Amino acid sequence: MDYNRKKKLAYASVSLYIMIYYIWLVFFKNNNPHFNTVANVFHTIPILITSIVLFKIHKRRHNKRDYFWLILSIGIATNLIAQLVKDYYEIFLNMNTPTPGVTDIFWILSTFFFWIALFYKCYHKRIKRSNLILMLDTMTTMCIAVAVVWTYIISPNVTDLQGINILAILTYVFYPIIGFGILSCSVSLYLSMDRTDIDKRSFIMIVVAFLIMCIGDLGYSYLEFKGNYATGSLVDPLLSIYKFILLLSGLEYLSDLSNNKQSLKAKQTSKCSIESISMILGIIIIVLFCFVLTKQDIVIWICFGVSITLINIRQIIVSFQNKNLIEKLRDLNETLEMKVKERTEEFFNIAFYDHLTELPNRRLFEHKLKKLIDDSNINRNTIALMLLDLDRFKIVNDTMGHSFGDLLLKEVAKRLNNCMDANCTIFRQGGDEFAVIVENVESKQTIIEVSERILKELVKPINLDGYHTYVTCSIGVAIYPEDGDNYDTLSRHADTAMYHSKELGKNTYTFYGYEMDRLASRKLTIERELYKAIERDELTLDYQPQVDIFTSEIVGVEALIRWNHPEYGIIPPLEFIPVAEETGLIGSIGDWVLKEACMQAKEWHDMGYSFLKMGINISPHQFQQEDFTTIIKQTLEEIKLDPKYLDLEITESVAMENEDIVISKLNELRGIGIKVSMDDFGTGYSSLSYLKRFPIDTLKIPREFVIDIGSNEDNKSIIEAIITIARKLNLNIVAEGVENNVQLDFLKSKNCANVQGYLFSKPVSNQIFETMLRNNRI
Prior knowledge:
- The chain folds into 3 domains: 1-259; 362-512, Reverse transcriptase/Diguanylate cyclase domain (Alpha-Beta Plaits, 2-Layer Sandwich), CATH 3.30.70; 538-775, TIM Barrel.
- Helix 26 links the parallel strand 15 and strand 16 (754-755).
- It is α/β, with parallel strands linked by helices.
- Strands 8-9-11-12-13-14-15-16 form an 8-stranded mixed barrel, surrounded by 4 helices. Strands 2-3-1-6-7 form a 5-stranded mixed sheet, sandwiched between helices.
- The longest helix is centred in the middle third of the chain and has 55 residues, at 298-352.
- The chain is 62% helix and 12% strand.
- Helix 1 (3-27) packs antiparallel against helix 8 (236-259) and helix 5 runs antiparallel to helix 10 (298-352).
- Residues 523-777 form the EAL domain.
- The chain crosses the membrane at residues 9-28, 34-55, 67-85, 105-123, 132-154, 166-191, 203-223, 229-251, 272-292, 298-320.
- This is Diguanylate cyclase/phosphodiesterase with PAS/PAC sensor(S).
């Protein structure tokens, strides 16, 4: 049987029991020798049942630390002891119960247990109100109760009680007064609960129970003062009813516990206003007693004075509590405002700033650029948009890992920030792309200065976690309003200019020009024509000698591809090689270069120049082919060229694609005698550890460092470092791009023997190179 059915059965049983009880008292009082015995039994049974049921409810409570129902059951059990003593006197001894006597001690003790239970509930629920306030409210109510009892019970009967001792009077008065105190305490506790409290519904019945107890105690005291009380009085069932209602409240608690009837949203009762109204009504009652219902009754005036004093004390305490609450609320509000401000700033940073570099992000970039364009439509200011893209950055993420790439981006962001003027704002667009907005541009020279500062700052060596590397970037510039009068157009043109910088060889800046549209069209034409170039035999090789600067003798040669188009003329490698890499044609072109260069080397060897070593550039795409080493071997075997005279020039990007695969392929090539050179060393993401692990024979100092030897001390230091590293690792050195004697003298001073460049010879045809070989001196 579930709790709901048990509850309904209990309600029906209690109602039937009380009805039978009253029938017995009304219809069987006269001429029945067992009347008192049955009346006492009727009064004893509810107490016994209630004490047992409340104890069982305590054992089934949801919170094992809650002893409210246990204390309440002890109070009822104490009441049971008093009733059993009364039964003993009246049933077994056939005499009236002495009053005051032992029974009164236990009855009074039971009321104290009720009070303890209520205060414990207040403490256990941690209700946000002072126990002192609860006590003052209870005492005020008791003063009102004293006034009521004095007015209606004691005062009218005081002349009839001349022979009654004072202890009896105090006992009779105590019951209703303490009852009103318990009622007041239970009401205050009920009003302090919210609707999420599982005790809420059951506690209203506890309030009703104590209300009926007060009425019963008032009736009992009134009859005792009148001398009309006897066992079987009509007030006795009231004292049984309140115990039954306590029992039913416990069943309601178990029912709510089983049904888990907790509201999702708590609604606080307006406690303060209800309690204040209750106190005001109590004072009005006492005032009526003082000025209307009574004359100059000293007891009523004492009650009035005590009540006013208690209420004043209560209000003083409440005012202090309210002051503390206001201060706490103010502190909480300040804390909340600070938290909201911090969280707002946090959300703003998340929304508009890049978490890695701490630079403004693309969203803030778009917002600011659009706003500046709108403002410039009014104030006619000139705005420059610079888009920056790091050259070959993808390699670092693929080979060194994203953690290293993140460190590099943070360092780049720091350096870019150092290049900014007051009118410049740097943004991170995402990945390895950055943007700079320059406001109030007076001339292009301003943008040139910013661009050159950026390029100069980034090219400085970077040391991260023991890795020595260099960074370059390509910059595209578009100026508002001449290059675009809205956000989309300006951004697109800056992007076009940036890619044009990459096509020019990277590490440079380009201003957008409308001729770039023509260049884009030319790029599409080159892509289309490149597919036919090999078939139509339009590709040729030129050869640039590598010279020993101390003997001026040719020691090697580098094969360089050229494209002679029948309609467009000579198309430089910087223009068509990137297209070949993008389209995948670089593989077939690379195979053609390999075969042609090896055939030419074999021819020169057969002519008697067997010392000549042929250098061939290998693209990353070509090197990554699975059959790359097989193609090399087959070509050498087919042409009958000794592998030791083939020098494959790879870039750092090739060496950093996949370490294990790169090492395996290089070892396989060197195993048959092929030489390997690291081309453009130091212009990318170099790592000294690669030089130690990878089987490399030669380091080639890039033209970018050599060309500024006469004007850039940093480049001199870099060249010295590369030469030192090569010697420590027993590597050969070749300096590229030597064009004047200043550069030559510096390289001589550093004992860099082998060089190539326009100072000795530009790339030439095979016929011209043969003439050089015959002279064997440049």
